[in-house]
Design goal:
The protein is of the alpha/beta class. The chain has a single domain, classed as NAD(P)-binding Rossmann-like Domain (Rossmann fold). 49% of the residues lie in helices and 15% in strands.
């Protein structure tokens, strides 16, 4: 198993891609801390994983709240004495065209998708520096690479994630910490699956593989970057998008 004995924090872990990542990492032997704001879903999924014999612990966190993030990290260190992997996966959407977008929705997406990543990384990275090792994987998006209609706020945060990833790669590489990002394409999460069939068909048509991604497809990319197999992969944005816009 590729992550035996590793301690991983996965934000946004109670649903969608984050949930698939929690399962995948636990299958590979990691001690997984499923960090999410949704307490009901988190506790339900923790119980499900426990029944399957997987080592996943739910901790409620609001990534926008610095105190909440610090409590999450403190719990991880108290229970495991280290943090090997941080997956900054938590994110939200509040879609609207620019002329219709409410300022509060613009700001809320920035708070969760960007400030949340800053908060979590700044809280975790001193412990990785102390151990002279660690893997940080940030979640960008094809929307951050190509832009996307009605996603001014979301695309802005996901583009910024790329810049932060490359900056942190320059800062932390000499400390033994790998920093990379994953840019998922259209993925069949619960949120996406609620879209009209016409929109889903267009998503598939724009993808070379002619299908939506599965949450596990993205989780597998996280797993690779978190494993020893990616020890020399650094400052990279891995597109996991089925060949979109080729």
């Amino acid at each position: 198993m590729r992550l035996t004995g590793k301690v991983a924090i996965i934000t946004g872990g109670a649903n969608g891609i984050g949930l698939a990542a929690c399962e995948r990492f636990a299958e590979e032997g990691a001690h997984v801390i499923m960090a999410d704001y949704d307490e009901t879903a988190g506790k339900e999924q923790e119980a499900r994983f426990t029944e399957k014999g997987l080592n996943v612990t739910f901790v409620q966190v609001d990534v926008v709240d610095r105190t909440s993030v610090e409590q999450l990290v403190r719990k991880a260190i108290q229970h495991h004495e280290k943090i090997d992997i941080l997956i900054n996966n938590a994110g939200i959407t509040r879609d609207a065209t620019l002329v219709k977008m409410e300022p509060a929705d613009f700001q809320r997406v920035l708070d969760v998708n960007l400030t949340g990543v800053f908060n979590c990384t700044q809280a975790v990275v001193p412990h990785m520096i102390a151990n002279e090792s660690g893997k940080i994987i940030n979640t960008s998006s094809v929307s951050g690479i190509y832009g996307n209609f009605g996603q001014t706020n979301y695309a802005a945060t996901k583009a910024a994630i790329v810049g932060m990833t490359k900056t942190w790669a320059k800062e932390f590489g000499r400390k033994g910490i790998n920093v990379n990002a994953v840019a998922p394409g259209f993925t069949a999460t619960a949120m996406v699956s609620k879209m009209p069939d016409k929109v889903l068909d267009q998503m598939k048509f724009s993808t070379s593989l002619q299908r939506l991604g599965k949450p596990r497809d993205i989780a597998n990319a996280y797993l690779f970057l978190a494993s020893d197999d990616a020890d020399y992969v650094h400052g990279h944005v891995l597109h996991v998008d089925g060949g979109i816009m080729m």
